[in-house]
């Protein structure tokens, strides 16, 4: 079976193209993707059957051989560093909570800084 890499794929359009190792562009309809797979990222290495379609070669029975490396996973913070950041955030939240118990809201700059820290932590945890 031929192999190639996804050039692009649009979930909205329901198709994309594969750059086959033979040098041809192969039409990739969403219906040819493996069961449970709705989209593929550019650079994903695929194995596929080929049939002659109305506009040229078309992929059939696609199998994913290798997904491209995740950029998010490679930009994650070291787990030990993230744990330290979370511990520092807990200390800040305790201080803000104690102030609120005494009727003191954080200043605008403190609230903005705390919001940025919490959003950054959330981004790293979700990645």
Automatic annotation (TrEMBL):
Record domain CSD: where: 1-64
Cited PROSITE patterns: CSD_2
Pfam families recorded: CSD
Gene3D superfamilies linked: Nucleic acid-binding proteins
Lineage: unclassified sequences, metagenomes, ecological metagenomes
Protein name: Unannotated protein
One Gene Ontology MF term: nucleic acid binding
